[in-house]
């Protein structure tokens, strides 16, 4: 069946502005004469319209096209749609620096090849492919939704993994699957954590986990999750981003770790509300200190000069790891304890006895009992134990 344009309802620019004006309780908004400011206003108006349409259950997907201005206008509203809702922009900058437009979403940018100024032999092919791809996404999503309704899984579990924590992830992943959970694994390199937070904010993930080299966690996790009314819980085990934040690595969290999803709107890299959703919802929270023995940098030559004489492990040509010191581990403990002591949620802190990563073991490059011992002792001293925090 083929549809014509007459089969679709068009929404005018003025209708978007009126809808936006009513939502913010202002008089009818008039677009500024300045083009850049006007793009910003229309982007907010479109975002409000799309969110309302999504809440009303009438959005199958979002598709658009544009240059730098059009892509900027569309990208923020499109990102406000939950993961899985098809979102595609045919853009003149799709092969350039796209992180500001895509961020941690599943927004697809398709190169327009030629400028967006009419139909020609090239644009006709590109736009036709874009339409076909978008239609496939919409149909595929509807089919997946129908399948998921029949699966009856307990919930979706997000898991972050580092190379030095893979053995534990593999064990826990298998255990969770046997228990009936779906698992999503993210690489804990900053971007992976942000992407997972977005899914938690959207309700796409009911449980998320940060893993380290600790093998007793599967049983602990399952028992804690199943003891609560809802199948919700967090295992924040690979907390290495704290080390990058405190010391200055390339994969940091912010001062906000453990308080993230408090912020509504755009996703910031571990802003001042990092993991706030965990505390806000008072869900079971198991935390450990995975990979706090390292700070991540780029190639060895890119490690700051003041760190070059420190113990550095070359992970690969692009990634180097710096061993953390006694003083730094004291700071990590203080940072984490400060966050946990402000929480009213149920927390279980698991401290490993045989190192905090695969590199922190006898005969391995980051084995340093004094530094690791300082971290564990400081946490035991600083964390205020009570009925809900153990």
From TrEMBL:
InterPro entries: Tobamovirus_resist_UPF0261, UPF0261, UPF0261_C, UPF0261_N. Pfam families: UPF0261 (PF06792), UPF0261_C (PF23189). It comes from the Eukaryota. Coiled coil: none annotated. Residues 11-139, 154-208, 260-384 form the UPF0261 domain. This is Uncharacterized protein. It comes from Gossypium tomentosum (Hawaiian cotton).
């Amino acid at each position: 069946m083929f549809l014509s344009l007459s089969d679709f309802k068009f929404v005018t620019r003025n209708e978007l502005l009126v809808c936006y004006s009513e939502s913010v309780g202002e008089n009818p908004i008039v677009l500024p004469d300045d083009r850049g400011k006007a793009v910003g206003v229309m982007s907010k108006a479109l975002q409000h319209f799309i969110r309302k349409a999504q809440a009303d259950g009438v959005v199958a997907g979002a598709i658009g096209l544009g240059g730098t201005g059009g892509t900027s206008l569309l990208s923020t509203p499109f990102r406000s749609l939950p993961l899985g809702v098809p979102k595609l922009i045919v853009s003149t900058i799709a092969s350039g620096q796209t992180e500001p437009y895509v961020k941690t979403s599943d927004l697809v940018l398709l190169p327009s090849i030629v400028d967006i100024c009419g139909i020609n032999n090239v644009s006709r092919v590109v736009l036709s492919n874009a339409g076909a791809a978008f239609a496939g996404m919409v149909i595929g999503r509807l089919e997946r939704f129908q399948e998921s309704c029949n699966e009856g899984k307990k919930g979706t579990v997000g898991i972050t993994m580092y190379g030095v924590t893979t053995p534990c992830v593999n064990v826990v992943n298998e255990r969770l699957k046997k228990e009936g959970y779906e698992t999503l694994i993210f690489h804990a390199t900053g971007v992976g954590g942000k992407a997972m937070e977005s899914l938690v904010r959207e309700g796409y993930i009911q449980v998320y986990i940060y893993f380290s080299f600790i093998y007793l966690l599967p049983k602990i996790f399952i028992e804690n999750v199943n003891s609560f009314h809802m199948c919700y819980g967090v295992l924040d085990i690979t907390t290495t981003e704290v080390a990058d934040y405190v010391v200055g690595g390339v994969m940091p969290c912010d001062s906000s770790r453990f308080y993230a999803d408090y912020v509504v709107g755009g996703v910031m890299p571990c802003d001042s509300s990092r993991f706030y959703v965990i505390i806000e919802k008072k869900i079971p929270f198991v935390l450990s200190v995975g990979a706090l023995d390292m700070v991540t940098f780029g190639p060895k030559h890119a490690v700051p000069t003041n760190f070059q004489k420190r113990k550095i492990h070359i992970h690969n040509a692009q990634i180097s790891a710096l061993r953390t010191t006694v003083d730094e581990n004291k700071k990590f403990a203080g940072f984490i304890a400060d966050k946990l002591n402000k929480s009213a949620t149920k927390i279980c802190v698991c401290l490993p006895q045989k190192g905090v990563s695969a590199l922190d073991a006898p005969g391995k490059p980051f084995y340093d009992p004094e530094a690791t011992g300082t971290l564990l002792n400081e946490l035991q001293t600083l964390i205020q134990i009570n009925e809900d925090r153990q």
